[in-house]
Structures are given as structure tokens and as C-alpha cells.
């Protein structure tokens, strides 16, 4: 939440230089208050698990948030019951007239496919185009981030020789960026992917800023300078046991899978993993919600194309 300060307080300029929201009393009194409206396009197979992970992060903010769950219409989910989807999810066609403060586009286990070969690619493109005029800020996660970078900026992905799988330290690139304000200079992020983006192509897009990265995993958090589009290459929303579940699932299916890096104590899968990224995940989503709370118009229909 922003802090309310006396009119003309000298500290205001310093706080603003550190990207801290400080509202003078006259402005604070005039603020209209309403719940934030967030839509979640959940493309993950285990939708209930992903719902819980994302809502856990959003709930850490003191702001009131109204949630709509969105699904693509031309893809049949094999891991979530039709009853659950019918009760809690709407097709994009049912939500497209709405305006939102924020949209979250999750990852999906389709990175082995070319984007155009994904059965819901055209609908996803329609949603990402719609977000320009109907959403203030969109967070793209993992494959959703790669897809967003490809759709908006033409940045390609490529297969890696080995899966990036584990908990990787990331170096903070901008201490006073709104989105990562309060982050330690090094923070941990779970990654679980077989592909990476073209870093050279990314560097050519001046509209985008890399907020954290690693020599091992590449760019980690990327955003436009106005935060209308945010791309998270890892899975900060993951729960403590998510990587363990993925590891044992693949192991039991006879797939080739390495022990997740920097995850199990002493690389011993019999030992309980440590939750090393929770604080930064909570902080990132609080910062995001705080930002859109400050920046979106009271009447969301006043949103302009971003």
C-alpha cells in the first residue's frame, strides 16, 4: 500500500527516487477506492494446484482483489474435471467485454511444440491482443512468457540440450525498480523448462528491461518500462513440493530426469526440500498489485491501448 504523507514533505522526492509510492494528503483524500479486477488465464494441466499457488500470492496483499478464471475454448483439459471448469471458469468469449487491472497468463507443458502448432494458439493470440486495450498490466509466466515475447516482439525460443530444472540464484539488475523493489541482490527462482528465449533478440528490444537474470538460466524477470507487460521465465508461484512432484512423476514414468538443482538438501531426494523463494515471490506479486492499484483508472473502461 502507498504511504500518505503531509503536503510538501521534503522526503517525498527521495521516496519517489527510490520508487516508493508516497501520496500527499490532498491527493490521498481524493482517491476513489474499489477492488482490483484480475483475470487468470490458467493453461496448466493441474488447474486447481495452479489456482491455489497464484491465489496464495495474490492474497498476501492487503488490497481487495476480484478474480475471474479464464480458459481457452478449443482445448479439452485432461487433468481437471469438467464440473470444476464449468463451475469456476469462463471462456474468453464470456469475459472479453470486461476490463481488468491485471491479467495472469500461466505456463503450459507445450514448449516442445512450435507456437503455431499449439491447438489454442490463435485464441491465445486473440487474448494477448485484447489485453492491450482491456488490461492495464499482464503477467506472463514460463511458457506464457515465451509465448508473450514471441507474439508481442517476435522473440523466438529454442530447445536446450538439457532441461533447466531446479532452484537457481538470480542477480537483481535494478535495485529501485517498482516491480522488484525490496528484493535482495540475489534471489532464488524455480525453473522447469526445456526451452529458452533468444537473448540477443531480447537485447534489441529497447522497450523491454531485464530486472533479474543469471548466467545459467538467462533473463529471469523482464518487463516493459511501464509494466504493461511482465514476463517471468521461471515459476515463482510454485509451492515447496512442486518440483519434487515433477521429479518423482517423471522418475516413475521412466523418463530421463536429473535431480532438481539446488533443491533437495545434499541432492538427496529422500530429504524434504527447503522453501528458498517464497519471500521474493510474495514481494513480487505485492509490488505488482500495488503498482496496478496506483496506476489504473477508477473506471477501467478508460484504459488506453498499451
Describe the protein's topology:
Elements: E1 3-5, H1 11-17, E2 22-24, H2 25-30, E3 36-41, H3 47-58, E4 65-71, H4 82-88, E5 89-91, H5 92-95, E6 100-105, H6 121-134, E7 135-141, H7 143-153, E8 157-172, E9 186-197, H8 199-203, E10 208-214, E11 218-224, E12 229-232, H9 242-252, H10 278-295
Parallel strand pairs: 1-2, 3-4, 3-6, 4-5, 6-7, 7-12
Antiparallel strand pairs: 8-9, 8-10, 10-11, 11-12
What does this structure look like?
The protein is built from ten helices and twelve strands. Strands 5-4-3-6-7-12-11-10-8-9 form a ten-stranded mixed β-sheet, sandwiched between helices. Strands 1-2 form a two-stranded parallel sheet. It has helices at 11-17, 25-30, 47-58, 82-88, 92-95, 121-134, 143-153, 199-203, 242-252, 278-295, and strands spanning 3-5, 22-24, 36-41, 65-71, 89-91, 100-105, 135-141, 157-172, 186-197, 208-214, 218-224, 229-232. The longest helix has 18 residues, at 278-295. The two termini are 24 Å apart. 31% of the residues lie in helices and 26% in strands. Strand 4, helix 4 (82-88) and strand 5 form a beta-alpha-beta unit. The protein is globular, with a radius of gyration of 20 Å. It is an alpha/beta fold and 306 residues long. It folds into two domains: 1-32, no CATH class; 33-243 and 278-296, Rossmann fold, CATH 3.40.50. The model has no long low-confidence stretch (mean pLDDT 89). The record marks 111 as: Important for acyl-CoA specificity. It is found in: Cytoplasm. It catalyses: L-homoserine + acetyl-CoA = O-acetyl-L-homoserine + CoA. One of its GO terms (molecular function) is homoserine O-succinyltransferase activity. The active site is at residues 142, 235, 237.
Amino acid at each position: 500500500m502507498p504511504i500518505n504523507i503531509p503536503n510538501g514533505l521534503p522526503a517525498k522526492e527521495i521516496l519517489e527516487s527510490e520508487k516508493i509510492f508516497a501520496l500527499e494528503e490532498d491527493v490521498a483524500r481524493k482517491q476513489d477506492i474499489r477492488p482490483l479486477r484480475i483475470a487468470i488465464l490458467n493453461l496448466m494441466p493441474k488447474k486447481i494446484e495452479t489456482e491455489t499457488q497464484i491465489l496464495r500470492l495474490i492474497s498476501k496483499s492487503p488490497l481487495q482483489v476480484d478474480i475471474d478464471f479464464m480458459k481457452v475454448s478449443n482445448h479439452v483439459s485432461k487433468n481437471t474435471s469438467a464440473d470444476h471448469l464449468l463451475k469456476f471458469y469462463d471462456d474468453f468469449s464470456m469475459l472479453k467485454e470486461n476490463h481488468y487491472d491485471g491479467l495472469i497468463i500461466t505456463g503450459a507443458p507445450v514448449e516442445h511444440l512450435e507456437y503455431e502448432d499449439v491447438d489454442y494458439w490463435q485464441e491465445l493470440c486473440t487474448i494477448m491482443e485484447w489485453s492491450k486495450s482491456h488490461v492495464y498490466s499482464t503477467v506472463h509466466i514460463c511458457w506464457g512468457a515465451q509465448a508473450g515475447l514471441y507474439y508481442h516482439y517476435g522473440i523466438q525460443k529454442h530447445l536446450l540440450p538439457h532441461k533447466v530444472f531446479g532452484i537457481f540464484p538470480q542477480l537483481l539488475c535494478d535495485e529501485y525498480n517498482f516491480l522488484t523493489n525490496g528484493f535482495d541482490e540475489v534471489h532464488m527462482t524455480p525453473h522447469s523448462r526445456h526451452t529458452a528465449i533468444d537473448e540477443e533478440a531480447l537485447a534489441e528490444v529497447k522497450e523491454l528491461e531485464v530486472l533479474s537474470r543469471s548466467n545459467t538460466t538467462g533473463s529471469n524477470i523482464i518487463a516493459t518500462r511501464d509494466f504493461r507487460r511482465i514476463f517471468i521465465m521461471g515459476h515463482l508461484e510454485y509451492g515447496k513440493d512442486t518440483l519434487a512432484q515433477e521429479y518423482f512423476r517423471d522418475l516413475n514414468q521412466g523418463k530421463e530426469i536429473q535431480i532438481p538443482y539446488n533443491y533437495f538438501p545434499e541432492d538427496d531426494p529422500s530429504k524434504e526440500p527447503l522453501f528458498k523463494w517464497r519471500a521474493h515471490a510474495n514481494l513480487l506479486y505485492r509490488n505488482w498489485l500495488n503498482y496496478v492499484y496506483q496506476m489504473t483508472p477508477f473506471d477501467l473502461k478508460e484504459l488506453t491501448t498499451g
